[in-house]
């Protein structure tokens, strides 16, 4: 039978106040760590047996008991009691109740301080792989979308003002690039956190001859921590992980913001499938891009988690402090939010089409070919700053006459620069300009097709 209460309560007199029990419990949040707690405990027990701190039979009892408990939790048959505070004590109490004396030996040479630090790293390692997989799926959806839009042109914007013409495919691929940085950033985080703190104890390690490299190897860590004081208090990896989630949310929010604008009547550039829109409770004509708006809005949730995590860390003295219990809620919230947003973004991307006719009809508005005209003058030997001034004056003249640059006569061009010749018309018009981009990574059809081939190879290897 399990002993009543918890071992450390022998130090305290009386029973804890109910308010205390409710305030300190974290099992309602950290129970999702149960698989990692069990795996870490089995590795620790195996090491204890290797070091003859427990017998082989005791290890077998501990291992089998922990596996049974894990199965019960997975099947929803396990009863969590908040009096045990967290997943670590809940599992240990259940183990002692199940196998008796051998279960009491599991915590030999271990503290909840190094235990929770280990569990969080194990959980985060898997979670990063899952998020990377979802990023890849979104990237593939974006690349698939581009296939039909390599030769279609849209305005590119700076300051939300028309700037230069771009291939629609190049615009879509810009988000693939952003997500690739997110993928790499998460991978870097995963490598940095792959350090085992197990065996660091409460703060100073142990007088028992524990084999920390054995547990690290069993758990797939790249190395062990080499300072026990830092090991139990390090939550840099939590802050970094939430930061990575925040950047992912930023990129998704930027995509959402663009498409919220682009699906409006004022733009009409895209149509998001009805399955990912809502209507109005009052206005029957409305098709609202609510899912995109929620992606944009939930970015604030992730930012809040990052700020909370940094605030938790900045005020603590050295060593483990109970403040760190609060890390999990923010880590889980950021991860869950980003995971859901990645799924929704992929679904929306897979069911959105560009209205190329509408885009094409207004393509020549906004003098998208102005920069190309300035570069035409450069090729004629005109200094760029002078060319810039010439084209600026030409644009002003066009606005007065309500003309496009291509509608000016050669004489009108000549009034502003003698370098402009009859071949100027071969360099004007948005579609013409897009086809003349030559630098690597340009937003033209040729470069877009090359990038699509690259991404199909790159993403196909994952």
What does this 3D model show about the protein?
This protein is mainly α. It has three domains: 102 residues, Orthogonal Bundle (Fumarase C, Chain B, domain 1), CATH 1.10.275.10; 207 residues, Up-down Bundle (Fumarase C, Chain A, domain 2); 86 residues, Fumarase/aspartase (C-terminal domain) (Ribonucleotide Reductase Protein R1, domain 1), CATH 1.10.40. The chain contains 19 helices and six strands. The strands form three sheets. A two-stranded antiparallel ribbon has the order 1-2. Helix 3 crosses helix 9, helix 8 runs antiparallel to helix 11 and helix 11 runs parallel beside helix 13. The radius of gyration is 31 Å and the shape is elongated. The two termini are 50 Å apart. The model has no long low-confidence stretch (mean pLDDT 95).
Number of H/I helices: 19
The CATH level-2 architecture of the largest domain is identified as Up-down Bundle
CATH level-1 class of the largest domain? Mainly Alpha
**Extended strand count:** 6
Largest sheet: 2 strands, antiparallel
Could you give the order of strands across the largest sheet? 1-2
Count of distinct structural domains: 3
Instruction: Give the terminus-to-terminus CA distance.
Output: 50 Å
Q: CATH topology of the largest domain, which one?
A: Fumarase C, Chain A, domain 2
Rounded to the nearest angstrom, the radius of gyration is 31 Å
The assigned structural class equals: mainly alpha
SSE order in H/E notation? HHHHHHHEEHEHEHHEHHEHHHHHH
CATH superfamily of the largest domain: Fumarase/aspartase (Central domain)
Uncertain segments: none
Helix content: 55-70%
Envelope shape:
elongated
Compute the average pLDDT. 95
Strand content: under 5%
């Amino acid at each position: 039978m399990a002993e009543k209460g918890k071992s450390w309560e022998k130090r305290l007199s009386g029973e804890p106040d109910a308010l205390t029990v409710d305030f300190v419990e974290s099992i309602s949040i950290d129970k999702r760590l149960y698989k990692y707690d069990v795996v870490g405990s089995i590795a620790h027990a195996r090491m204890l047996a290797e070091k003859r701190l427990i017998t082989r039979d005791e290890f077998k009892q501990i291992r089998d008991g922990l596996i049974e408990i894990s199965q019960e939790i997975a099947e929803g048959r396990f009863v969590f009691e908040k009096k045990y505070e967290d997943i670590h004590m809940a599992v240990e109490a259940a183990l002692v109740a199940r196998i008796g004396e051998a279960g009491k030996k599991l915590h030999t040479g271990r503290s909840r301080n190094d235990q929770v630090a280990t569990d969080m790293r194990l959980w985060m390692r898997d979670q990063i792989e899952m998020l990377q997989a979802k990023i890849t799926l979104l990237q593939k959806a974006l690349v698939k979308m581009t296939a039909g839009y390599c030769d279609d042109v849209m305005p590119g914007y700076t300051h939300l003002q028309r700037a230069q013409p771009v291939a629609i495919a190049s615009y879509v691929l810009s988000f693939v690039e952003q997500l690739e940085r997110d993928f790499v950033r998460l991978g870097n985080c995963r490598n940095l956190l792959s350090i085992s703190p197990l065996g660091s104890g409460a703060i100073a390690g142990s007088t028992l001859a524990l084999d920390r490299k054995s547990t690290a190897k069993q758990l797939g860590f790249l190395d062990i921590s080499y300072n026990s004081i830092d090991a139990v208090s390090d939550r840099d990896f939590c802050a970094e992980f939430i930061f990575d989630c925040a950047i992912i949310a930023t990129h998704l929010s930027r995509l959402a913001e663009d498409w919220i604008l682009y699906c409006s009547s004022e733009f009409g550039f895209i149509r998001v499938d009805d399955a990912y829109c809502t209507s109005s409770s009052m206005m029957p004509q409305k098709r609202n891009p609510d899912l995109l708006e929620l992606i944009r809005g939930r970015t604030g949730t992730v930012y809040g988690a990052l700020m909370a995590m940094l605030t938790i860390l900045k005020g603590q003295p050295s060593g483990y402090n109970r403040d760190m219990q609060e890390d999990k809620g923010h880590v889980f919230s950021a991860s869950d939010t980003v995971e859901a947003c990645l799924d929704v973004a992929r679904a929306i991307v897979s069911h959105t089409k560009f209205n190329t006719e509408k885009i094409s009809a207004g393509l020549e508005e906004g003098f998208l070919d102005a920069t190309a005209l300035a570069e035409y003058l450069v090729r004629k030997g005109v200094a760029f700053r002078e060319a810039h001034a010439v084209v600026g004056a030409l644009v002003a003249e066009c606005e007065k006459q309500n003309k496009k640059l291509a509608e000016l006569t050669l004489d009108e061009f000549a009034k502003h620069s003698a370098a402009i010749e009859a071949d100027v018309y071969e360099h004007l018009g948005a579609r013409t300009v897009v086809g003349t981009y030559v630098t690597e990574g340009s937003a033209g059809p040729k470069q877009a097709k090359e990038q699509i081939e690259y991404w199909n190879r790159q993403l196909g290897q994952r």
